[in-house]
C-alpha cells in the first residue's frame, strides 16, 4: 500500500503518470490504479512483425518503499509466452534489475518492456522453455507465442483507428486526490487511537 512511500516519491509517481496519460509512448496506455499510488498498470500493444502483434498486454509496475533508489517490480498480468516473463508474470529485464538508475522514469521502464517484446533475451530467461525454443527453433517459439497471444491478449478496440491507445477513463489527478483524502483520513483516525 501507499503508506510506506514518501510523499515526495508519491508526487514523482503522480507527475509521471499524469505526463504519460497526456503523452504516452506509441502503443502504450497508462491506467492509474484508483486506490493505490504504489501501483501503475499499462496496456502495451504487441509490436508489429513480432509474435505478439495484434495483442494487448496488461502490465503492472509495483513501487516499493525504496523507490526510486530501487526499481519498481514489473509483471505481465496478461498471460504471455516469452523467455523473460515467468509463469507468474514477473518480468526479467536489466532495467528493472542491475541497470536501474534513480533518474530513470516510468516512460523508460514501459518503453523497455515494449522493446523486450521485440528483442527477447533468452540468456536471462525466466521461462526456460521459451528461452530454449527461441534459441533452438524460432518458428516453434513464434508459433507458440502467437497462439498464446491470440488466446490471452485480445487487442482492445481502438476508437480512432490510430496506433495510440485512447486516454484512460480515470484521470491521474482525480486518482491522486482520492488517495490523498484517504491518507489524511487514515492519519486522523490513527491520531485518535
TrEMBL record:
Determine the domain of life of the protein's source.
Eukaryota
- Keywords (A to Z) from UniProt: ATP-binding, Nucleotide-binding, Transferase, Ubl conjugation pathway
* GO molecular-function term, one example from the UniProt record: ATP binding
The residues covered by the UBC core domain are: 8-154
For this protein, the Enzyme Commission number is 2.3.2.23
Which CDD domains does the record match to this protein? UBCc_UBE2S
Question: Would I find rRNA-binding among this entry's keywords?
Answer: no
Disordered: annotated segments: 152-193
> Which stretches does UniProt call biased (Basic residues)?
175-193
The positions flagged as active site in the entry are 92 (glycyl thioester intermediate)
Pfam families assigned: UQ_con (PF00179)
Stretches with biased composition (Low complexity): 157-174
Q: Which family does it belong to?
A: Belongs to the ubiquitin-conjugating enzyme family.
The protein depicted here goes by the name: E2 ubiquitin-conjugating enzyme
Q: Which organism is it from?
A: Vannella robusta
Amino acid at each position: 500500500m501507499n503508506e510506506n512511500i514518501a510523499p515526495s516519491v508519491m508526487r514523482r509517481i503522480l507527475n509521471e503518470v499524469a505526463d504519460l496519460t497526456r503523452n504516452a509512448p506509441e502503443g502504450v496506455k497508462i491506467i492509474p490504479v484508483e486506490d493505490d499510488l504504489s501501483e501503475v498498470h499499462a496496456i502495451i500493444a504487441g509490436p508489429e512483425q513480432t509474435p505478439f502483434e495484434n495483442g494487448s498486454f496488461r502490465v503492472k509496475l509495483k513501487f516499493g518503499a525504496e523507490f526510486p533508489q530501487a526499481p519498481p517490480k514489473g509483471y505481465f498480468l496478461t498471460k504471455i509466452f516469452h523467455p523473460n516473463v515467468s509463469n507468474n508474470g514477473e518480468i526479467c529485464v536489466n532495467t528493472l534489475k542491475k541497470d536501474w538508475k534513480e533518474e530513470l522514469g516510468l516512460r523508460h521502464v514501459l518503453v523497455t518492456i515494449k522493446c523486450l517484446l521485440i528483442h527477447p533475451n533468452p540468456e536471462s530467461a525466466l521461462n526456460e522453455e521459451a528461452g530454449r525454443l527461441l534459441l533452438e527453433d524460432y518458428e516453434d517459439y513464434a508459433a507458440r507465442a502467437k497462439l498464446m497471444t491470440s488466446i490471452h491478449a485480445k487487442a482492445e478496440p481502438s476508437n480512432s483507428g490510430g496506433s495510440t491507445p485512447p486516454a484512460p477513463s480515470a484521470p491521474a489527478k482525480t486518482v491522486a486526490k482520492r488517495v490523498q483524502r484517504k491518507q489524511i483520513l487514515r492519519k486522523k483516525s490513527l491520531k485518535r487511537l
